[in-house]
Amino acid sequence: MALHVLWDLPNGTADVPAIQTLEKKYGMKAGSINPNLFQSAEYKYGSIANPSAEIRGMALKHLLESVAIGRELGSKDVSLWIADGSNYPGTQSIRKRIGWMEEVLGATHAALGDGQRMLVEYKPFEPAFYHTDIADWGMALELVRRCGPKAKVLVDTGHHAQATNIEQIVTWLLHVKELGGFHFNDRKYADDDLTLGSIDPYQVFRIFHEILSAEEKDRTDIAFMIDQSHNLKGKVEAMVQTVATAQELYAKAALIDQVKLAEMQQECRLVEAEECFRDSFWQDVRPIVREWRTARGLPAEPLKALAESGYVEKITRERESKNARSVSTYA
Do 206 and 281 contact (CB within 8 A), yes or no? Predict the structure, then answer.
């Protein structure tokens, strides 16, 4: 399970023993470690790209502690989303901010231990509406290359302008061996963070196809993470639904006859190639996936098993009084 430092480890490394206890109790492992460089009031004008050297130092200190947390928990990835940017032309030096980011990210990369990686995410807008400091995959790619071999690019499927060909970006990052992982979600307009495949399952299928088309050695280290905002759906049900959908779409992509498709592509047999591609998407793989789950001792129908377990109702009752005092937020 991915951990958010300020929300899950508010006391930093001092909270690591508590997380380790929970790991043993529930048979789970800490996943990516996610620093928070957007919540504090000090970051109003940026974190690692802030004009203030003092605030950049504050951000770096937090990043280094996040690296230490990951090292103690045996977590491979430190996943960075940088909300820095500006809202009005002329109010910030874009050029200077590039240098400041390089300096802080470079220092973070230098602190990574053996087996650790730093994943750098990008986003075209929000909360910055004029310029975002890491606005696209090209900027993220250049930053990770300047940091060093332990830095890779993270692709959030919601973080793109409308009609962006995300699978092409994935292919390029695979080609240059800089794809670190994904934050999977879906969107209708922008960064909606909806359940995977709820809007465009064909896009997820196309992304999985490009991954499976790569050499095995180039795809073994890809981190698959879920980053969604379940404001209306039940959070547990939505997560189970997303994992089940990912399994089914991956299975569909795996059905593509790569040899046959490659021959048709080479000969420019356009309609036949497209039909070969689409035919796999339209296959009902649910029986195969159910068998796959059963063979591994997993529920054949996860959502049904969850409903029959009564788990959601149980935790709802336990948390009812606490939730009644909570204030809903965007996230």
Answer: no
Output the DSSP codes for 214-245: S-HHHHTT-EEEE----SSS-HHHHHHHHHHH
Q: Are 259 and 66 in contact (CB under 8 A)?
A: no
Question: What radius of gyration do the chain's Cα atoms show?
Answer: 21
Per-residue pLDDT of the chain (331 residues; tens, 9 = 90+): 999 999 999 999 999 999 999 999 999 999 999 999 999 999 999 999 999 999 999 999 999 999 999 999 999 999 999 999 999 999 999 999 999 999 999 999 999 999 999 999 999 999 999 999 999 999 999 999 999 999 999 999 999 999 999 999 999 999 999 999 999 999 999 999 999 999 999 999 999 999 999 999 999 999 999 999 998 999 999 999 999 999 999 999 999 999 999 999 999 999 999 999 999 999 999 999 999 999 999 999 999 999 999 999 999 888 887 766 665 554 4
Give CA–CA dist 67/35, Å, rounded: 9
User: Do 5 and 72 touch, CB atoms closer than 8 A?
Assistant: no
pTM (2 decimals)? 0.94
* φ, ψ dihedrals at 179, nearest 5°: -85, 120
Continuous segment of H or E residues that includes residue 4: strand 3-4
| CA separation for the pair 280, 220 (Å, rounded) | 23
At a CB cut-off of 8 Å and minimum separation 6, what does 75 contact?
A: 3, 30, 31, 32, 33, 69, 116
Residues 6+ apart with CB under 8 A from 90: none
Closest C-alpha to 28, from 74, 81, 61, 69: 74
Instruction: Report yes or no: 101 and 114 within 8 Å, Cβ to Cβ.
Output: no
Under a CB-based contact definition with an 8 Å cutoff, are residues 204 and 194 in contact? no
CA distance 227 to 72: 24
Map residue 157 onto helix, strand or coil.
coil
Output the CA torsion sign for 280, 283, 287, 290: positive
